[in-house]
Amino acid sequence: MIYKLENDIIKVFDKTQFNPKHILECGQVFRFGIDKNGNYFVISKDNKATIIEKDDCCEIISNNPDYFVNYFDLNTDYNEIKTTLSKNVTLSKMIPFGEGIRILNGDAHEMIFSYIISQNNNIKRIQKIIDKLCEIGIKKDGFNAFPTIDELANAPIEFYQSLGAGYRDKFLKQTADALKNINLEEIKQKSTDEIYNFLISLQGIGPKVASCILLFGFQKKDKFPVDTWIEQVYYNHFSNKKMSRPEIQKYFENEFKEYSGIAQQYLFYFERERKTKE
DNA sequence: TTCCAGGCTATGT
DNA sequence: ACATAGCATGGA
Predict the structure, then answer these.
(1) Between the CA of A168 and the C1' of B9, what is the distance in angstroms?
(2) A119 CB less than 7 Å from any atom of strand B
(3) In terms of domains, do A162 and A194 share one?
(4) d(Cα A211, Cα A218) in Å, to the nearest integer?
(5) CA–C1' span, A166 to C8, in Å?
(6) How far apart are the first and last CA of chain A?
(7) Across the 278 residues of chain A, what is the mean pLDDT of every consecutive 10-residue run?
(8) Angle in degrees, 0-180, between the axes of helices A260-275 and A245-256, rounded to the nearest 10
(9) Which domain, by its residues, includes A176?
(10) Residue A120 CB in 7 A reach of strand C
(11) Among A17, A54, A112, A269, whose Cα sits 20 to 30 Å from the Cα of A204?
């Protein structure tokens, strides 16, 4: 156990496997930032958590501690996973850059819309578009909840056109309409392949976006999404052999098995931190 | 100005 | 089954 619950505050003691910067800036989530006190915060669904770094622990202050124990995946031992993944020599050299990364247990519905927006886009603009999308979400204490399926389905196409999302606006509207009569909790009971096929049947979702949604929204850690950054990691650090993105995905999923998605985050964070100075 | 960003759809072969 | 043009927008 790496955490304790005290007066609705989660105290995480093992900082080698919990680092708010690594967790939030490794590209898996978009509704986060640093508040005026210099503390990281993250919004998920209709919940918000603020993370305060102390000398001996990180304190997670939120409206819903149970939600965030699950959200931050606090019952999983990431040091054990790191040891396993370190058998790959190339990856073992990159893990220290993002040693406190954890895969967040995000909301499936929120991940679907977030990652439709993410296609052929950059993270800063993705965040701006999602922020605008959330303006129709319920007002909470200092933030907006992510809009529900009904709120998104009831919004007219003009709303989506006002987001600055470009050609993705119609994908968002079509997906909102398609999801209106679907219970995602029932979808969750299906096999990974069945969920994948359901996801790519939605407009604006292809192999990469579906893999992200499976990993971050359906907690399928054996998925390894391949985007432009991962393609570069592959050619810069693993092989010069020309491969398609689906082939690169297979290559890494075969290498990292049930921890593929976690390996992917270390690689993504390493490559992106190396090439973007803030 | 051109290129690129967590790619997908549509339309060829 | 695989290859590629076109796609909205904004920042470098």
Answers:
(1) 11
(2) yes
(3) yes
(4) 10
(5) 4
(6) 34
(7) 97 97 96 97 98 97 98 98 98 97 98 98 97 98 97 98 98 98 97 98 98 98 97 95 95 98 97 76
(8) 120
(9) 108-217
(10) yes
(11) A269
